[in-house]
Design goal:
Number of helices: 9
Structural class: alpha/beta
Shape: globular
Radius of gyration: 17 Å
Order of helices and strands: EHEHEHEEHHHHHEH
Strand content: 15-25%
Distance between the termini: 22 Å
Largest sheet: 6 strands, mixed
Length: 206
């Protein structure tokens, strides 16, 4: 089997991840990647999206996971089974398939990584609403809203956060700090693996 060109697909659990990673295409210009999201946010459809992406020839499938939706034991069990199923690199030379599936978790949700654009925190937020309220204390002018109308109006979430005084480099560093603290202290809240995803995208450019 010849060397496959790196092609990545980023599968989020909703519109937030779709619009955010669309806005990063100008940052990672040398990476062929496509943001996508299930129409129905469920573990079952996420699995179907992964299988579809594998058949379409993507070499890297990056799944963005909001951990605040995995509080129920039944949902967490289904999620862990899905991770275990795709834990190994998928290799099928006859069909020209070489595919790695990776999961990147954030607690509470992707807005935690957005908060890291402005500074570090380990605050145990009660819910998404409290996290977004804290995020909006950091922005300078236009308050963040979790709506399609807002995402479209502001011409790219990444540019919006930087125009409000945030920094992707800062977000990556803060996300990494959160993971180091999580792994050291064993805490299960206020962290993001999206910094590691950004580094994975950087590596695909090399």
């Amino acid at each position: 089997m010849g060397k496959l060109r790196n092609r990545a697909i980023i599968i989020g659990e909703g519109i937030t991840e779709f619009y955010y990673f669309q806005s990063l295409r100008d940052v990672y210009k040398q990476v062929v990647f496509k943001p996508d999201y299930p129409k129905n946010t469920s573990i079952k459809e996420l699995g179907e999206k992964i299988r579809k992406a594998k058949k379409e020839g993507y070499t890297h499938i990056f799944c963005i996971i909001d951990m605040d939706t995995k509080n129920k034991e039944s949902e967490r069990t289904r999620y862990n089974k899905l991770k275990a199923k795709f834990a190994k690199t998928i290799i099928n030379p006859k069909k020209g398939i070489l595919c790695k599936v990776e999961f990147f978790e954030t607690h509470l949700c992707t807005e935690m990584f957005f908060r890291y654009y402005f500074g570090y925190t380990s605050c145990p937020y009660e819910n998404q609403k409290s996290l977004i309220k804290d995020l909006n204390k950091c922005v300078k002018k236009v308050k963040y809203e979790k709506t399609i109308k807002f995402f479209r109006k502001n011409n790219g979430l990444h540019s919006y956060f930087e125009s409000e005084g945030g920094s992707l480099e800062k977000a990556i560093a803060n996300a990494e700090k959160s993971m180091k603290e999580k792994e050291k202290d064993g805490r299960d809240y206020t962290y993001s693996e999206l910094g590691r995803l950004m580094k994975a995208l950087e590596n695909l450019q090399k």
